[in-house]
Structure prediction request, 424 residues.
Amino acid sequence: MITVIGLGFVGLTAALGFASKGFKVFGIDSDKNKTTLLKNKKIPFFEADMEEQLFYNLDKTFIINDNLKESVNNSKIIFLCVGTPCDDNGDVDLKYIYFAIDDILKYCDEYKVLVIKSTVPPSTTHSKIKKHIENKGFLIGKDIGLVCNPEFLREGTALDDFMNPDRIVIGVDPDDYKVIHWMQAVYKPFNAPLHIVSLNTAEFIKYLSNTMLATMISYANEMSMIADGIGGIDVRRAFNILHEDRRWFGQPAPMTKYVYPGCGFGGYCLPKDTQAMFNITKEKYLNPNSMLSATLAVNNLIKKHSTAKIWTFATDKNIRIGILGLSFKPNSDDVRDSPAAHIISGLLEKGYTNISAYDPLANHCFKQHYPRLTINYTDSLNDIMSVNDLIVIVTACNEFINIKKNKVMKNKHLIDLRYMNLSE
Ligand code: NAD
Prediction:
């Protein structure tokens, strides 16, 4: 049996979703007006197909229960779906989570799995909620299983999104692997990819998703304001034509390659065109604190950050460093403004002298384009791998995909700035 605390958009959807998969679900909400409405088979907001599901499941597999003790005693898994609004400073207010947890813990006489479905910022479950529970005398992993299970449903299609999830994310504490089988069991009927990750990662994935959506919306809005300011631009047509770019289509859409961390954009076009667009924005007295300026600033920052990662690791200046990839992107010999040039230059400036590099296509171009960067060039991946103490992947060339972190030879280290080889 499952208890769902908080019957708002997320909680009611989850409760009805689990109920329609045959689980017995207790639904609890502190808002009596809401529970009265629900008991009368009415839902307090518009959501397609929801009322039908409520009508079908209520008092069969879905019980609206005002008795928390009974619900908790009879449930193994308790989902927390209460609100997490921002306080006056913009920080997430966790009070509804803490109130609900305190109430639940009063009735936890045996092992229960507590699932945080509410959205909470990365590190909250581990550093705050876990502590809060432990301060009440409960041991995570022994008395309570603690899970972060962010929800990705969209209002308007909430039930359909919940019933047909594209992915399920389960964050768990490293000491608390007992909870995994409970979560696998509860989500088995949904037949979707289920990812077990750390608590922080699970929380981060939720924010990664929402902040990306927010950023894309603001990007589009900013560009429309710039277009209005410049004048003579048919904004609607421009965006429609943008959407014809074939990189939006396909599975996975090639556009996903642009939403991937690395060591910055380079090459001939993106740096100069972003700079030029920013400059015309300034020239026309449009918003100087634009996302375009942030885009350029982040691109400088990531190159410094990537170089600093190597400095931190390579404390000995005589360490032999092997750079993999010199072009600004794979399958290209274009080295103009390539992140590799910035990183190598940052290493040379810091006094590292033993740097060698290999690129399947761009060794020659790099040497010609950056004569002042005094490094050794090697002709094969094998040479780089055998000679150096520290290997750094800078460009995501296909040839580097098979380098596995745990297979890099003993006493050698790998820094994968393209996140190619650290995946699940
Ligand atoms: P909501 O405000 O619609 O629902 C929260 C419910 O919790 C309310 O009905 C409230 O009365 C109830 N509640 C609060 N404290 C309680 C307690 N101690 N005991 C019982 N009930 C209690 O919020 P929501 O939109 O469902 O969002 C819930 C969480 O899910 C938030 O963290 C939100 O950020 C996240 N989320 C929301 C969406 C969305 O589209 N709305 C999508 C994904 C994630």
About this structure: The first helix runs from residue 9 to 20. DSSP finds 15 helices and 13 strands in the chain.
